[in-house]
Design goal:
By secondary structure, the chain is mainly α. 56% of the residues lie in helices and 4% in strands. It has helices spanning 2-21, 44-58, 61-72, 77-80, 93-124, 172-202; strands spanning 126-128, 137-138, 155-157. A hairpin with an 8-residue loop joins strand 1 and strand 2 (137-138).
């Protein structure tokens, strides 16, 4: 129950972040502890950065809990994935279809979103100083000259202004890659464990 709650909240987060980034008129109107609303004061690059931060910080928990569930499941490979819709048996034909869709939405969609946010930042994101002096520089890893190791006057923007979230070019991209890599690792472990469950059941 904890896993599915976290996964569904993550799905809502991803959907709303995409809607905000693309300035879509459609979004899931669901109240969350942290609310995201489209604003003219935040550029799409800012939304993409917030989206990548959220995925990197929290998404790894979803495949981790799913992997723990799969290690304890012995009924079938489909049942090893901890998603239930009404009383549909996961190992039945309709159940396998439901589990496959749930897997793609709750695990595949976050990875696709992380890739989208990352490519968006690399294509359009620029690192600026708080007062635009020196001017904005290209790239996620750009670091204007400063005597401080962690300078919160750095901003990730689209280059049109310095109105964007504070950003540390040396650490944040590396941290995001590391945590997304951990999520990918747990997802791989989950798939391996599901195949092991299938082998035990067939034996």
């Amino acid at each position: 129950m904890i896993w599915i709650t976290v996964a569904l909240l993550m799905f809502v987060f991803i959907f709303n972040m995409h809607s905000a980034t693309q300035k879509s008129d459609f979004a899931l109107v669901i109240k969350l502890p942290i609310e995201f609303k489209a604003s003219e004061n935040i550029t799409p690059v800012g939304y993409a950065l917030h989206g990548l931060r959220g995925l990197a910080l929290f998404f790894w928990l979803v495949p981790f809990l799913a992997w723990l569930h799969a290690r304890r499941e012995v009924k079938s490979a489909a049942a090893a994935f901890p998603f239930r819709l009404l009383d549909v048996e996961p190992s039945s034909g309709p159940g396998i279809v439901i589990q496959t869709i749930a897997f793609l939405l709750l695990l595949g969609a976050p990875f696709a979103s992380a890739w989208h946010f990352w490519t968006f930042l690399t294509m359009y994101g620029q690192v600026c100083r708080n007062r635009m002096v020196p001017p904005c520089e290209d790239g996620l890893w750009s670091r204007p000259v400063s005597a401080n190791l962690w300078d919160h006057t750095y901003r990730m923007t689209d280059g049109s202004s310095n109105n964007g979230p504070s950003y540390e070019p040396m650490f944040e991209p590396a941290l995001a890659l590391l945590l997304c890599g951990i999520a990918a690792g747990f997802t791989l472990l989950l798939i391996v464990e599901m195949f092991r469950v299938r082998s035990r059941v067939e034996a």
